[in-house]
Amino acid sequence: MFTTFLLAAAAAIPSGTSREFSTELAAASAPIRVESLDRRFDPGRTGFTVTTPGGFGIDYREFTLFLRPGETLSLTASEPVAWEGETSSMTLEWSAPDTPGHHRMTLTAEDGAQMSLHLVVMRARNTGDSEINGYRLGRYPDEPYLGLETYRAPEYFVEVSPGIEALPLSPHFRLGQFLCKQEGGDGPAYLVVSERLVLKLEQILEAANARGWRTDSFAVMSGYRTPDYNAGLGNGSYSRHIYGGAADIFIDTDGDGVMDDLNGDGRHDRADAAALYDLVEEMSGAGHESWLAGGLGEYGPNTRHGAFVHVDERGFRARWGR
């Protein structure tokens, strides 16, 4: 029988991030750039897997989970792991405090393999409110699309306190990459990010590097959008972006703000987005998506942006742009 123990976070950092952790985040906040095309890509995996209540497994050395205030997080490890000197176990529980903030725990397997989990307690939004703490959101649809839970209006949001933008969501993506680009007020901004989306992006990034496109992250042109900001772009009211489940991405290793020449034809155009699109489609056809199934769209450049690919985790197949 598995032993269950309560994990009490030793380093609770409510809203105002601690000086020590803030320093860590600041050091990590510089843009990710490729130093040498000869370096091998490190997928950032550890030697064991932790399964969440949502049914997805995490096997990365670093990952962020988002929780509601007071929520009890139950994790199941693929092998016995210990936290802060506790007895090794395969079932772990952690109770989130009632106040928003960031907490960090390190899980260690018997062979020394480690996983650093960032647990972010979110802030509640009053049902129906079009803002949270003065930050304008706009109106979410009253009813979820097709009755799906993934399209239900979010009730809790990540509070973007000073320094938290550099929080690592996974080995190759940071919270700040997914912030909405709308003008904020005097207080903090807010957003939601799907852990499933982050996992999907990590898998695509690993496949892109295996294809020979050496990069340590994707440029995220658009991640979370408030309903107001999304409407201002002329997009549909059920866009996956307003639920934190979509990202418009491209590969930009030289920092010029546009998609790299992925197909090697000497041009930066839609054909490069097509190459990335084809890679994701191949992964889907090979059964890589499973619970990560979602939307995939191809976009060419225009006067406002370069070529990019839309990826989301809506839970069912959708394709456009071809």
Automatic annotation (TrEMBL):
Gene3D superfamilies given in the database record: 3.30.1380.10
The Peptidase M15A C-terminal domain, residue ranges: 198-250
Name used for this protein in its record: Peptidase M15A C-terminal domain-containing protein
Upper classification of the organism: Bacteria, Pseudomonadati, Pseudomonadota, Alphaproteobacteria, Maricaulales
